[in-house]
Design goal:
Blueprint lengths: L13 E5 L7 H10 L4 E5 L5 H11 L4 E5 L4 H10 L4 E2 L5 H8 L5 E2 L1 E2 L2 H9 L4 E4 L7 H9 L6 E4 L8 H5 L7 E3 L5 H5 L3 H12 L9
Helix pairs in contact: 1-9
Length: 214
């Protein structure tokens, strides 16, 4: 997110992590999330429909800020930006991937799970990162322990976080937002129950930055 006046980390307390299997679901799903107050949407590149889903949301849901997640190759960086992705998120990083994301012209969140990875990114001028897989990698206790020696690093933890645990993460000084998919239950998407998605998104959006409900 270097050099950006508005950081993706500051768009909303919660970034929905979306797996789109049917591109026809992309637009109504994104509209439901935006209506619920979650405008920053991470579409993961885990399915063949993902790039078309990003393109559809960009074209039809102007209030959404849609990005690509699970970006692991320079080719995916190029494809995502060509589809209109406004930000990029990776589960981890290498120098090759980092340079591709840096050269993409859009904000990016490289993934980290260790102190050394955080230090290496800070050394390269990157201060905003995804902490993944959050729960498995040590959760709030780990992030809290990083805040002392590395206060300049800001995180969007993702992985195993739900409505109950999100406030504990958001209460940490080095956490700007959390990523999660709890507002996108598979049965609701299968039933195309967009009203339920919107209601769950509204509940998630009501989590404030001090870790309490607004």
């Amino acid at each position: 997110m270097s050099g950006m006046t508005v950081s993706v980390l500051d768009l909303a307390p919660v970034v929905p992590v979306v797996v789109v299997r049917d591109v026809a679901d992309a637009v109504p799903l994104a509209r439901a999330l935006v209506a619920g107050g979650l405008p920053a949407i991470e579409v993961t590149l885990r399915t063949p429909a993902a790039t078309d889903a990003i393109r559809a949301i960009v074209g039809e849901v102007p209030d959404a800020t849609v990005g690509a997640g699970t970006v692991i190759t320079p080719e995916q960086v190029a494809e995502s930006v060509a589809a209109g992705a406004r930000f990029l998120v990776s589960p981890g990083w290498t120098n090759v991937l980092l340079e591709a994301m840096r050269g993409s012209g859009v904000p990016f969140l490289p993934g980290v799970s260790t102190t050394s990875e955080v230090v290496a990114l800070l050394e390269r001028g990157v201060r905003e990162m995804k902490f993944f897989p959050a729960e498995a990698a040590g959760g709030t206790a780990y992030l809290k322990s990083l805040a002392g020696p590395l206060p300049q690093a800001r995180f969007c933890p993702t992985g195993g976080i739900g409505l109950a645990s999100a406030p504990d993460y958001l209460a940490l000084p080095n956490v700007a937002c959390v990523g999660g998919s709890w507002m996108l239950p598979e049965e609701a998407i299968a039933a195309k129950d967009w009203a339920r998605v919107e209601a769950l998104a509204r509940e998630a959006a009501a989590l404030s930055a001090d870790g309490t409900r607004r």
